[in-house]
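Ticket opened by: R.M.
Priority: normal
Category: complex prediction / small molecule

The reporter submitted a protein together with S-adenosylmethionine and asked that the result be attached to this ticket for the collaborator who will pick it up next week. Submitted input follows.
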Amino acid sequence: MNQENESKMTLSQEDFGLVQNMLSQRVGISLSVGKEYLVVNRLSPLVDTFNFDSLHGLIQSLHAGNNVRLWDEVVDVLAVHETFFFRDQAPFQQIEQEILPAICIEAEKAGRDIRVWSAGASTGQEAYSIAMLLSEIAPHLTKRVQIVGSDVSGKVLQAAAEGIYRKFEVSRGVSQERLDRFFEPHDGAWRVKQTLREMVQWQKFSLAGTWPTLPEFDLILLRNVMVYFKPETREVLLNRIVPAMRPTGRLVVGSAESLMSCQHQFRAVSSMNATHYLRVND
Ligand SMILES: C[S@@+](CC[C@H](N)C(=O)[O-])C[C@H]1O[C@@H](n2cnc3c(N)ncnc32)[C@H](O)[C@@H]1O
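Result attached by the on-call engineer:
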């Protein structure tokens, strides 16, 4: 970086504080002191893209809050979107062998739909993993499956809706058998087949903001999202999802996440080296 560029991209402590506050309040993401380099590295390319004369100008515009497209880009570059198909073996075995079969039996008995919410869905691998499992476990029920994938980033949701994955992405978790059954070749990559894509609806909203009206879900996957939230934000979120669950609803969180140190209305069920949570009904 030359000298002129360096001063253009300087981040004052005050501006860093503004970014921290905006991310925390609007998205729930907690950006710790020491992450100034991350803000500079990720936001600097947006200074020219959005025709600002400096990083300071960009942050001031964000703070003024009237540039939705800029805010979307900032959230997109600052959030962590890492994901892959059938992420983490133990929880997915539990989902495949215990949780989904139980949900299918309940739904069939009651003659109702099966609803799953992948909250913090990123580019869609988690939601499509569930769609594949349900297609395998209960092919006769797939027309009654509704999966919602939600994320605060519109960009990742657009990719999720397209359902196109590079070789490297499908090689992370998709077996040859599932690749043959659920994907079709697409310009040197792989596209999730339409039958599977039709099982998922994508919705953009922040888990820390206003939610659209949601139905009651049989299963909520809230994985590797809360890890970036402050404990108080986690607690609020855990309480907000309760009304979005059927009384028999199950919650699965990320392997590195726990509900400990939060007041909540769930009880843990452990089996097959994994834990999921059931709603405690009064
Ligand atoms: C690390 S990815 C996890 C994806 C998937 N759940 C998994 O476990 O593989 C986290 C996703 O949560 C999204 N996210 C972060 N904060 C969010 C919020 N407040 N509301 C909705 N989505 C959020 C990010 O944009 C990102 O795509």
